[in-house]
Amino acid sequence: MKLVNYSSGRNRPQLGVILGDRIINLHESSHGQLPDDMHQFLELGDPGMTTARGIVSSATDGDSLDSVELMSPICKPSKIVAIGLNYLDHVKEIGVPIPEIATTFCKFPSSIIGPNDEICWSNQITQKVDYEAELAIVIGKTARNVAEVDAFDYIAGYMNCNDVTARDLQFDLGDQWIRGKSLDSFCPLGPWLVTRDEIPDPNNLSIKSLLNGRLMQDSNTSEQIFKVAFLIEYLSAAFTLLPGDIIITGTPSGVGAFRKPPVWLKQGDTISVEVEGLGRLNNPCVEL
Questions:
Q1: How far is residue 138's CA from residue 28's CA, in Å, rounded to a whole number?
Q2: Are residues 60 and 85 in the same domain?
Q3: Which of 71, 201, 242, 245 could be a cystine partner for 5, CB 3.0 to 4.6 Å?
């Protein structure tokens, strides 16, 4: 299933499933059995997913996809955990040793925006804004001390993510990774959350970014050093992962900072991220 948060003119987001060119509202179609909130839905775990699939299999109506506004599939996770230097081709382009342990940092939930929302920044804060195409994992149930062999049972699904980064904040002023990666609007997600059953092998997916239609990153998640299941074991050994939490799993080669000359996002650009099977995430850029 392709799960979405969407707006159809109401004051709050609604929970739906994409079915062709329509959206099925899960709350209304289940006659209130399912919540109209993504986090509450994920907290139901596998029984909620099973109910939703039953609704989708017999759905005959729904809103036109063109008549609604898609929002970030996950709006308020308790945490966004990010993995740095996790692609062999990216490590090679930087010229650093292959990491022996996974580099972790966080992005703040306040940085989240959805598909077609504007990536915004002030040139008084940063003048080196970069893109990073990433595969995002969404946790589906509380995970603590999860064994790698059981890790996929704790995944609700996957999304595209753009780990937008202010490189001058990240590096030029010292190692300020969180500040450089957590500016408002610096975590585009979407356009939908694809449930794990539709992605049989997240470790073998093409991953791309396009800047104004020009291919910038073109790789495969098989280049990841630390794989999806390992990351869940590794992270859940340290802290509890909750339903709706997001793990972004690193970016491949081709980012702007390490091109010659460097390529920075600018006013009027559109940056797109496309992981195989997850649709395309497009965001325009606005320099304030």
A1: 24
A2: no
A3: 71
pLDDT(12) > 80? no
Number of domains, the chain: 2
Q: Which residue, chain included where needed, has tokens 């995970």?
A: 143
- The whole domain housing 148 covers 80-287
Nearest C-alpha neighbor of 44 from the set 184, 166, 142:
142
187-238 pLDDT tens trace = 999 999 999 999 999 999 999 999 999 999 999 999 999 999 999 999 999 9
User: Percent of the chain, pLDDT > 90?
Assistant: 93
Q: What are phi and psi of 26, to 5 degrees?
A: -70, -35
3-state secondary structure of 154: helix
Taking the alpha carbons at both ends of the chain, their separation in whole angstroms is 37
- pTM value > 0.90: yes
CATH number at residue 161: 3.90.850.10
For residue 80, give Cα distances in angstroms to 64, 104, 161, 213, 245.
31, 10, 11, 28, 6
DSSP 170: I
